[in-house]
Design brief:
Layout lengths: L6 E6 L5 E6 L6 E5 L5 E2 L11 E3 L5 E6 L10 E6 L5 E6 L6 E4 L5 E6 L2 E6 L4 E7 L4 E6 L4 E6 L4 E6 L4 E7 L5 E4 L6 E5 L2 E2 L1
Antiparallel strand pairs: 1-2, 2-3, 3-4, 5-6, 6-7, 7-8, 9-10, 10-11, 11-12, 13-14, 14-15, 15-16, 17-18, 18-19
Length: 199
């Protein structure tokens, strides 16, 4: 999957059939390809270059993290588009710029990792609520079940497991100087990249 510009973000769809990337300097915004053939796949057109994106588990919607453009338009937040029609179905606000996005497996909740912690939107009302606030900038989020959210902060230096039913952090791991972290989709494995390689 070759582009003229290096990617600032890369996302694999939940079904493993599509990969999307956001070029650092590209004016095209997000681009997507079919896994296996490498052919371009159509993504809805946002009127901004997104910071990050996420597919829902049903592969019916895609969320784009909207940067803060000051007085030029709506502030930071998230736009959700229908993958088939391209129409924007939600314009969510109430967050600082999102570093990462994740849909819950049932598609009812969207969460964003931000500089102030993790924010969630109930998509039945489109209203935001804080999952938890932290002094550590959250940089990645993933659901390992409808109730369990895995969170990485400070580039993988702090790793947490949050329970929606209990509304609290139930586990905290020390990433020991991690610079980037990635949870497996089932939440059972965690890879942390640091100065001495990947653990």
């Amino acid at each position: 999957y070759d582009e003229r510009y290096s990617a600032s973000a890369v996302v694999v769809s939940p079904d493993g059939q599509e990969v999307a990337g956001i070029g650092r300097l590209s004016q095209h915004g997000a681009r997507a390809w079919s896994v296996g053939s490498g052919k371009h796949r159509r993504l809805p057109k946002a009127d901004f270059t997104p910071r990050q994106l996420a597919y829902d588990f049903a592969m019916k919607r895609v969320a784009f993290a909207r940067p803060d453009r000051g007085s030029a338009g709506p502030g930071a937040g998230v736009d959700i588009h229908d993958l088939k029609t391209g129409d924007r179905v939600y314009q969510l606000s109430g967050s600082s710029e999102a570093q990462d996005l994740a849909f819950s497996p049932d598609g009812n909740v969207l969460v964003a990792a931000t500089a102030a912690g993790v924010l969630a939107w109930d998509l039945s009302t489109a209203r935001p609520r804080a999952v938890f606030l932290t002094e550590d900038e959250s940089d990645s989020v993933i659901f390992s079940s409808p109730d369990i959210l895995r969170i990485s902060s400070r580039g993988g230096a702090v790793l947490q497991t949050f329970s929606f039913s209990e509304e609290r952090v139930i586990e905290t791991f020390d990433g020991r100087g991690g610079r980037a972290a990635c949870w497996s989709p089932d939440g059972l494995f965690l890879a942390v990249a640091g100065s001495k390689g990947v653990r």
